[in-house]
Amino acid sequence: MKLAARLDLIEPSPTLAISARSAELKAEGKDIVGFGAGEPDFDTPQHIKDAAIEALQKGFTKYTPVSGIPELKQAIIAKLKRDNQLEFSPKQIIVGTGGKQVLFNFFLSVLNEGDEVVCPAPYWVSYKDIVRLAGGTMNIIPTRFENGFKMTPDELEKSITPKTRVFILNSPSNPTGAAYSPEEIRGISQVLEKFPNVLVLTDDIYEKLSYGIEILNIATASAQLRPRTVVVNGLSKAYAMTGWRLGYAAGPHEIIAAMDMIQGQSTSNATSFSQKGAVAALNGDQGVVDSMRAVFEKRRDLAFSLLSNLKGVRLFKPQGAFYLFPDIQGLEEAPGWKALAERTKETDVGKIFSSGLLNEKLVAVVPGTAFGYEKGFRISYATSEAQIEKGLNRIREFVEALWK
Ligand SMILES: Cc1ncc(COP(=O)(O)O)c(C=O)c1O
Hints:
about 10% strand, single chain, binds pyridoxal-5'-phosphate, alpha/beta, Aspartate Aminotransferase, domain 1, 14 helices, globular
């Protein structure tokens, strides 16, 4: 079968191999502990479900305007004002089927062949493939464990070239949980202010899940950047609504109008009754977000303490999101490492570790390669404390055995 050449530009998600193997083992009745999924394990709060049910019962089941129902746009405008002190008009807002689709629309709207997108690594898996499908190339800024997986303003400045069209900021980050302080955001914005042709894409999907650090939006920090910043956010993580497929963008009208045109020729609108649920989420009691955040923080502390002080594993304490990203380059020194590499038949550090851990200890994690950082792996602690204890104790045993 002859397929489109553009498929050569992207890779199957490296997480799929692990997920498929994990499903196989589960089907065989094995007791798998899954740390792979990037989604809250909580159910969607009841008042949000009720709003969608009511919408269905009232027959709110037709197409909506492409860019979203006016009521939801107003709720988004109110949210951006309340949380980020940012003012937008309805024409500057678009609602889509999840943050991911909104990002697709954004990159298809602004990139031409050969345009560069600057992004620090480790980064969220899909940026690279979306950018490539849109004709762009990624210009990666590698970050280090020693820097808390954050780039410096200097590193950012050096990476911008005449071809750079977009800079991606994702704080708190998937997969590291690193978050930039307001001061660091100001440092980054001062660099970007020098490059008027560079658009800023701030992916704020984990904004509500931060632990003891203030999250300052880059558009709020810099009035100069505001007219060329697009804010992307969604309901999936903060309100436990991954399956509802609801995300949005706010930014310059020209870009939003282009995204509207692309969406109008692809998915049309986000699901009508999901949009009603989103109105209830954004306008309703925000206490539900606070209580989920508090549980995640407790789990972060538990996960962090369970994996601390493990030879060959360096652990960064995440400031947000629900991921832990251990750096495991030290494990290559372990006496058992070579044999593990041979058993797994993998070649990179993250994959050797993840594959061995799944086969031999029945714990599913995502190799760092998926995020542009080979010598690490991602644990999603969006699961029960009992599962966290069980899975992380197995990881400890697995690592300790490599040193024997
Ligand atoms: C950094 C980041 N951005 C965007 C998304 C997209 O989320 P959704 O499409 O569910 O809104 C995710 C989901 O994993 C993410 O981790």
